Structure formats: structure tokens, C-alpha cells
Automatic annotation (TrEMBL):
This is Metal-dependent hydrolase. It comes from Qipengyuania spongiae. One of its GO terms (molecular function) is hydrolase activity. Pfam families: Metal_hydrol. InterPro entries: UCP07580 (IPR016516). Residues 1-30 are annotated as: Disordered. Keywords: Hydrolase.
Length: 310
């Protein structure tokens, strides 16, 4: 049976970027580069719960497996944070943007559900991944009491990091080559939707901070992007090393092997660094890099059973 999807009706069909005036008829504030005809599709994928991926599911490589397991273990609590971060802004958004927030939240709920199941398989192989989840929660607890716009900027930074990784996963088949097919499909599905909604939180930010000066906007989002991405990436490295230690590696060897995997071969972090750094530039918007062509290559598997928008 084809998995159900829910498709938000596009606002325009002429291929142009969203218009510049603040609070225009479509409700998107000045500075948005999201294509007007772009749409979010909720693909309610449920992967095979009976499938048992091997312990080293990525190419029988403990290092690659540890890296992706570290990322996956961080996702459920992180994506719940993203949804909660948008809630205080939802009622004040114009209808078009509010509808996109609903679709974004449904996508993230589905991602959380599938990664919880994936993480359970990882735990079944004897890995302690709960400590990774608890570490994410401890990091997110530091946001308690902060201004709601601060948490929105954190979400922008993490969504940008996710979108860049997703772009590489879909653009270069080497990154998932040799991986267990079911596990690889989970990552491709997730990557597709991360690219698809990569500009949503930024558009909410533009609306929420429309009365801020350009300098305040830039200073806040760029500083938070630098700090939170460094901390998140550092924690993923730390936790991947911890998983490798559970496989019997000593810390020094685990660190060396992981560094080679991330920065040399296949070297995703080296290849994506300057794309990530775009967030530190004035005038940044995620959709200034239009990679919708990657969605067209991937989404044919999910094109049927489109449900009308609410």
C-alpha cells in the first residue's frame, strides 16, 4: 500500500520568489527567498519494523555507523524542540505561513517516530544511546527562560546544518553507498523533507522579528548559529566516539578514525563547510541555494496518495 502523503497547495505557480513588502498578501516578510510555488508534503512513511539492520549497518563500517547513530539518537528530542519553538508564534502568523508550520510540524513528528524506532534497533545491538538523548535534553534545558526569538534562532541554525547534510546525502550517493537498504531509505526520506522545509523556520523568524533592525537580526542569528552549531557538532563527535568505545576502540583510535571519516574520506564536513558558513553572511536565506532538483530525483517513490490540505 502506498504511504499516505499530505500536500499543501502552493501559493503561486509562476516560479518567482516571494514578494518583498512586509506582510504582503501572502504573509511572508521582507527578505524571504522561498520560491512562491514551493510546497511542503507530509509523507507518512512507516518503515519495516520487522527488518533487522546489522550492528554495523553502514557498509559494515563501525565508524560510519557510529556517526549516523550519534546523529539519529539526537533527533527525537531535537525535533520536539523545533515544534515547541514554533508554537508561541503560530497564532500571530498569516494564514499561508501558519499552514506551512502545520505541515512542518507533521513532518517532524513523523521523523521523530521513525528515528525512535531506528534508535531502538541500535539499542537492541547493545549500544547505550539513551545517554545521547539525555545529553541533548540537557543542552536544550539551557534555553529555558530565554526569549522565544532566541530559541527560534537556535532552530534556524540546527535546521540549516541538517539541510546541508541532507543536500550532500541526496546529491552524492557515496555517502550512503553500501548501507543497509532499509536504513539508507530512512535517511534519504528524512533528508528530502529537511531540504523541503529548510526555509520555513527562517520565514517565521523574518515575520517574528520584522520590527528588529537589520543589525540586531544579523548579530543574533549569526552569533547563535556559530555557537550552537559548534556545540551540536562537537557533541555528535563526542557521542560517536563513545559509541566506538562501546565497540572496543580506544579513545585515541576512535577519534583518529572518526576525524578521517568526517574530514578526509568521504569527508562530508570538509565538503560542506563553506555551504554551512553561508549562514554567517548578511542577507542569508536557506533558499538562496535552490536545490529542489534533488527533491525531484527522490520523491518519485512518494508521489501518490496526495491528501488535500486542511
Amino acid at each position: 500500500m502506498t504511504p499516505p502523503t499530505e500536500k499543501l497547495a502552493p501559493v503561486r505557480q509562476d516560479g518567482k520568489a516571494r514578494p518583498a513588502p512586509d506582510d504582503n498578501a501572502f504573509g511572508f516578510a521582507r527578505g524571504s527567498a522561498t520560491p512562491m510555488e514551493h510546497e511542503l508534503i507530509v509523507r507518512d512513511r512507516r518503515f519495516d519494523r520487522q527488518h533487522k539492520s546489522p550492528r554495523w549497518w553502514h557498509s559494515n563500517d563501525p565508524v560510519a555507523t557510529a556517526w549516523y547513530n550519534s546523529v539519529s539518537a539526537s533527533l527525537p528530542r531535537g525535533e520536539a524542540f523545533f515544534i515547541d519553538t514554533l508554537k508561541p508564534f503560530r497564532d500571530d502568523l498569516p494564514p499561508g505561513l501558519r499552514a506551512e508550520v502545520r505541515a512542518f510540524s507533521k513532518q517532524e513528528v513523523n521523523h521523530t517516530r521513525e528515528h525512535v524506532a531506528f534508535n531502538r534497533l541500535v539499542a537492541d545491538h547493545g549500544y547505550n544511546v539513551e545517554s545521547i538523548s539525555e545529553g541533548i535534553q540537557a543542552m536544550l534545558d539551557l534555553t529555558e527562560g530565554r526569549p522565544k526569538e532566541f530559541n527560534l534562532a537556535i532552530t534556524i541554525a540546527l535546521e540549516h546544518f541538517a539541510a546541508i547534510i541532507s543536500r550532500h546525502l541526496l546529491a552524492d550517493p557515496r555517502y550512503l553507498e553500501g548501507a543497509d537498504p532499509e536504513a539508507a531509505e530512512i535517511w534519504r526520506w528524512h533528508a528530502m523533507e529537511e531540504i523541503e522545509h529548510k526555509g520555513l523556520v527562517f520565514d517565521v523568524w523574518l515575520h517574528a522579528t520584522k520590527d528588529w533592525s537589520a543589525w540586531k537580526r544579523y548579530k543574533t542569528r549569526s552569533l547563535i548559529a556559530l555557537l550552537i552549531t559548534k556545540k551540536y557538532f562537537g557533541n555528535r563527535v563526542r557521542d560517536a566516539i563513545g559509541l566506538l568505545e562501546q565497540d572496543g576502540f580506544d579513545r585515541r583510535t576512535a577519534r583518529r578514525r572518526l576525524r578521517a571519516f568526517l574530514w578526509w574520506k568521504p569527508g562530508m564536513m570538509r565538503r560542506m563547510f563553506f555551504e554551512w558558513a553561508a549562514i554567517l553572511m548578511p542577507g542569508f536565506h536557506p533558499w538562496k541555494h535552490d536545490d529542489r532538483a534533488l527533491l525531484g530525483k527522490t520523491q518519485s517513490d512518494y508521489a501518490a496518495a496526495v491528501m488535500p490540505a486542511e
